[in-house]
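On clarity, I found the account of how folds are encoded harder to follow than it need be. For illustration, here is how one protein appears when written out as sequence plus C-alpha cells:

:::
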Amino acid sequence: MTTLTGLHLRAGIYQLYVVIPTDLQARFGRWRFRKSLGTSNRKEAELRGTVERARLLALFASAKNTPGTLPALSAQTQKVLEPLQGILIPAEANAG
C-alpha cells in the first residue's frame, strides 16, 4: 500500500508535513508546513492530505514563477481543488 508522503500520526491525529523547496524557504520564513488533518482515520487523512499537499505544491510552483510577494493560487488551480475540499469517507460522514 502506498502512503502519502509527509503523513504522520501525532497524539492520535494525522498531520501532514510538507518541506518547502530550499529556494523558497527564506520567502516563506520556514522550512516546512505542518497541518493537522483533523482525523484519526488513515483513509480520511490520506484524502485530506492529498488535497492539502496538492494545494501547497501548486503554491510553491506559483511562488517560483512570481518574484516578490507570496502569490495566491491561480483561479484555475482553486477551481480544480475546490470540489475536493471537505471530502469525507462514508464511515466518518455517518459518524457525526
